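Worked example

This section walks through a single chain of length 246. The input is the sequence exactly as stored; nothing has been trimmed or padded.
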Amino acid sequence: MRVALLAMLLGLGLFVALPSAAIAAQPATTADDAFEDDDPFAKKEKATVPPLADPIKPVNKAFYHVNDKLYFWLLKPVAQGYAFVLPKIARKGVRNFFSNVGTPVRMVSCLFQGDLKGTGTELARFGVNTTVGVAGLGDPAIGWLKLKKRKEDFGQTFGYWGIGPGFYITWPMLGPSSLRDTAGMPFNMALNPATYVPGVGLLNRINTTSLSIGEYEDIKDAALDPYVAIRDGYNQYRRRAVKSWD
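Given that input, the structure is written out below as tokens.
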């Protein structure tokens, strides 16, 4: 019965999308993040992040509301049903698997930024996690060898090359982006093997959402204007991601 339910949920998921890519993009709080909170220089940096132009705001807000409704009406219920079918430990394994599959995006992005150490780290992580980690379901590369994943993509690579973010874009079903990050999407997709398997990207989306239910709701509850909060949060995160190798 659970198998049948899973199939039904995946079928429904064909019509859903994450309302905010910024939610998935936000990294978990680390010790470094906590240190930055007490660092007056870090606070000054955050306060002076240049705003991201929003010349097509009416269109962006319209798509934001569409994505918001898709989340609450479709994606969230699907993800909750999916979580009922698979225990959390299994869903974390699926997340690790998709992260491992996406290694070429991070590895090539590091290479094109001249980060040879990062390129080697991603290659080593892939070898360890694919073998010892059983096709990437586990992450012994970080647990045993302390090899930290490089959070790089072609949007960041273009930023490293000196290309500005352009302006803010909210894509239907894809969520927040910028002109620069949008230009990087085809390269990210081309280098990710999951792109070429129908339905796999959808499974990744549902699985990721099942592990983060409540985060989007918290953003909406805490913000006077959720659209502005998501836009500005996305801008700050992406600008900081371009400035240094994390």
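What to look for: Residues 2-38+48-243 form one domain.
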